[in-house]
């Protein structure tokens, strides 16, 4: 598995073959790496029941608010898989973890678990039947989007882009607009989540869609108003999917697995 998931020349990472964290043992997470796990939320009844058993009371309350069974099952799977994943990194039972939500919706570990993790950070995103998790020793954010989602591209871009980004998008070829739109949207979401202020920070203040080389999917490094350095890039998630990863600093690379 190690050789199969090593980085390709010129790439920051590679999503390897189907994998379960348990098959890797206690996954080593170096300080300069970010680990990504791509999962399917449509789980068969038996695994779904096992994942449901790891949820806390407040998560069950949230699950019960979904009137659609498919949505309820996907929520249960998403939370259960997250707990299983974090438990593998921390070496503890998934059901014992206490998860919190920050003022702007950023998830985290409760104080006692955070002390044990000594700074372990994570983030998650879901779209349709898939979810993407990121685990790192730094602030991190991810976004995943199903490209079949129907969106009025230019109308949304006008609301979320800086004036310079909007001008560049207006000149972009129509046949390439959908891909460029999702590349931009996922980058904005990922870096807003990494910074922790979510949409409250203002997507129109984040100039992340057009790196210096002009490639709207390339890696970009920028600094915020406090002088902190951030990096953001798009992810190769396969046909029909778009995604992005953002994290503090510029001294990191990522590794990814397709978790079945």
Main β sheet profile: 5 strands, mixed
Distance between the termini: 15 Å
| CATH class designation of the largest domain | Alpha Beta
What is the architecture of the largest domain at the second tier of CATH? Answer: Alpha-Beta Complex
User: Can you tell me the residue ranges where pLDDT is under 50 for at least 5 consecutive residues?
Assistant: 1-13
Output the number of helix runs. 7
Gross morphology is globular
Kindly identify the CATH topology of the largest domain: Ribosomal Protein L22, Chain A
SSE string, helices as H and strands as E: EEHHHEEHEEEHHHEEEE
Strand % is 25-35%
CATH superfamily of the largest domain: 4'-phosphopantetheinyl transferase domain
How many beta-strand elements? 11
Number of domains: 2
**Sequence of strands across the biggest β-sheet:** 1-11-2-6-5
* Radius of gyration over all CA atoms, rounded: 18 Å
Average per-residue pLDDT, rounded, comes to 83
How much helical structure, as a percent, in the residues? 25-40%
- Derived structural class: alpha+beta
List keywords for this structure.
alpha+beta; 260 residues; five-stranded mixed sheet; Ribosomal Protein L22, Chain A; 11 strands; four-stranded antiparallel sheet
Describe this structure in words.
This protein has two domains: 15-137, Ribosomal Protein L22, Chain A (Alpha-Beta Complex); 143-252, Alpha-Beta Complex (Ribosomal Protein L22, Chain A). It is of the alpha+beta class and 260 residues long. The strands form three sheets. It has a five-stranded mixed sheet with strand order 1-11-2-6-5, with helices on one face. The chain has a four-stranded antiparallel sheet with strand order 7-10-9-8, with helices on one face. Helix 2 (57-64) packs antiparallel against helix 3. The two termini are 15 Å apart. The relative contact order is 0.18. A hairpin with a 5-residue loop joins strand 8 and strand 9. Residues 1-13 have low confidence and may be disordered. The chain is built from seven helices and eleven strands.
């Amino acid at each position: 598995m190690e050789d199969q998931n090593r980085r390709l020349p010129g790439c920051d990472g590679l999503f390897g073959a189907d994998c379960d964290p348990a098959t890797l043992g206690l996954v080593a997470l170096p300080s300069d790496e970010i680990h990504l796990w791509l999962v399917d939320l449509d789980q068969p009844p038996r695994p779904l029941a096992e994942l449901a058993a790891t949820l806390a009371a407040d998560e069950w309350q949230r699950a019960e608010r979904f009137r659609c069974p498919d949505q309820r099952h996907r929520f249960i799977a998403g939370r259960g898989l997250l707990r299983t994943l974090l438990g593998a990194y921390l070496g503890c039972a998934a059901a014992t973890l206490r998860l919190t939500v920050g003022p702007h919706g950023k998830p985290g570990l409760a104080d006692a678990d955070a002390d044990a993790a000594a700074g372990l950070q994570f983030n998650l995103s879901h779209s349709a039947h898939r979810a993407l998790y990121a685990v790192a020793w730094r602030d991190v954010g991810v976004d995943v989007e199903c490209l079949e989602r129907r969106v009025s591209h230019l109308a949304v871009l006008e609301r979320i882009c800086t004036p310079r980004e909007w001008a560049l998008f207006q000149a972009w070829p129509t046949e390439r607009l959908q891909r460029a739109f999702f590349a931009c949207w996922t980058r904005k979401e990922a870096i807003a989540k990494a910074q922790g202020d979510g949409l409250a920070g203002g997507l129109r203040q984040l100039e992340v869609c057009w790196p210096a080389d002009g490639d709207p999917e390339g890696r970009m490094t920028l600094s915020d108003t406090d002088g902190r350095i951030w990096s953001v890039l798009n992810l190769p998630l396969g046909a029909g999917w778009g995604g992005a990863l953002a994290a503090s600093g510029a001294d990191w690379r990522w590794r990814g697995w397709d978790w079945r």
